[in-house]
Amino acid sequence: MKAVQYSEYGTPDILRFVEIDAPHAGPGQIRITVKAAGVNPLDWKLRSGLYRDFMPIAFPSGVGAEAAGIVDEVGDGVSDVSIGDAVFGLAVWRTAMAEQAVLTRWARMPDGMSFEVAGALPIIAESATRILDLVSIESGETLLVAGAAGGVGTAVIQLARHRGVTVIGTASAPKHGYLRELGAIPTTYEPGLSARIRELAPQGVDAALDLAGAGNIPELVEIVGNGLRVLSIADIDAPKYGALVTTSQGEHPEIALANVARLYAEGTFRLPIERTFPFERIAEAQERSSTGRVAGKLVIAMT
Ligand SMILES: NC(=O)c1ccc[n+]([C@@H]2O[C@H](COP(=O)([O-])OP(=O)(O)OC[C@H]3O[C@@H](n4cnc5c(N)ncnc54)[C@H](OP(=O)(O)O)[C@@H]3O)[C@@H](O)[C@H]2O)c1
């Protein structure tokens, strides 16, 4: 099968298309013929070597953590899906961008969901669900989301609104309409955030999520008044300021995936795809991702 790989850290031009043996589904796994695979910031961060000290990778490395497609092999012990079913899910670490991929966790695609949306959903559905749980956000509370216009923010806002939470999100001014459409109250991330939040939320903010990693954890802790309800997914220094950080998936991502699939089918969750790239243009997709300016998600469509 055709797959994308790289054999050293570097710029997007080190990505190579190679012919390799198709992987097989082990016990508790399934294999899919990939139709679409989501692009995440982690893809370019790993490739560039940015994370080489704490997430070193073995070469040659594949790319991608999530995909959607048609089941073509079912491992021992799997009984919830059959060959021919359309599913989306989390792939074996760094192997999703290939003609076939093995999934470790998955859910069925609901009617009406495109492969592009399905392929871009697993990471943000899992991450958003995990971090809302970790800050124990509840109905009636107010949540501040720093970096709310990207992929994870798009899911966080909608899932928090489903929980009855008021959401204030930071984004650059041109994306404030996008945040409002998702159900959040927008504000910019320029200096003076605390003062703006006091005006927008005179009742106070109960918890904050940092999705931007832009170095404002102390300010978020000050706004919330309790570091144990400030959580970052993008700043490993957050604990230095009394806040929390999370970097690994929860135990049951498949529950988050099935929940988002259900909400999507009901018409109460959506995922705007900023752009779909053909497989051959994965380098361009990673370049766009690395700008940190994506609204919603980028996705690779297999041809
Ligand atoms: N730890 C984990 O488990 C985990 C899981 C998933 C993702 N992540 C990480 O979480 C981060 C977010 O992921 P993502 O997929 O949502 O990224 P993304 O889609 O690339 O997010 C891009 C968004 O970030 C916004 N942004 C950039 N700089 C900002 C700033 N200083 N303040 C506020 N917003 C800013 C941009 O909005 P503007 O254009 O308006 O600036 C853009 O809409 C990434 O660093 C990713 O690697 C971690």
The gist of it:
This protein has 303 residues and is of the alpha/beta class.
Q: H/E element string? A: EEEHEEEHHEHEHEHEHEEHEHE
- The name of the CATH superfamily of the largest domain reads Medium-chain alcohol dehydrogenases, catalytic domain
Profile the largest sheet.
Answer: 6 strands, mixed
Give the oligomeric state of the chains in this entry, treating copies of one chain as homo and distinct chains as hetero: single chain
Which structural class should the secondary elements be placed in?
alpha/beta
Outline the low-pLDDT stretches: none
- The first-level CATH class of the largest domain is given as Alpha Beta
Radius of gyration: 19 Å
Strand content: 15-25%
Distance between the termini: 13 Å
Cα shape: globular
Number of strands: 14
Query: Helical amount among residues, as a percent range?
Result: 25-40%
Can you tell me the CATH architecture of the largest domain?
Alpha-Beta Complex
Query: Cofactors and ligands present?
Result: NADP nicotinamide-adenine-dinucleotide phosphate
What name is given to the CATH topology of the largest domain?
Quinone Oxidoreductase, Chain A, domain 1
User: How many helical elements?
Assistant: 9
Mean pLDDT over the full residue set? 97
Question: How many separate structural domains?
Answer: 2
Main location: cytoplasm
EC number: 1.-.-.-
Domain Enoyl reductase (ER): 10-300
Enzyme class: oxidoreductase
